[in-house]
Amino acid sequence: MERVKNMVIVLMEQRDLAKKRCDDLNLELKIITEKLATTQKDKQTLSSKIKLLENEMESAQEENLTMKNENVELEYEVEKMERERSSQQNELSYVEREVTVKEERFTKMEKAVKDVVDA
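-> structure tokens emitted (119 positions)
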């Protein structure tokens, strides 16, 4: 009888140890499950941030393309204005030569008139 009693005590101790081990495993499983949930939330957050960054990058690329197009248009306008300025400079040079020629003619005519008057 003593032997049965001892066996029951040993079995009860083993049951208590198994129950404690089961509780420990359940607690560990709960912690791992919470970590997994946190990891999945972090993954979703990172995915959202990546998507936002991709959208920002796409917007920046579109803005860059727009600015490049505007720059090309401005360069065209600058070239057009430089050609116009060059044309006006050429016209001014022509007019200045005409004025010089006419001044020289006037001076010669003035001298000729003076010579005629003096004579």
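Residues 95 and 101 are 10 Å apart (CA to CA).
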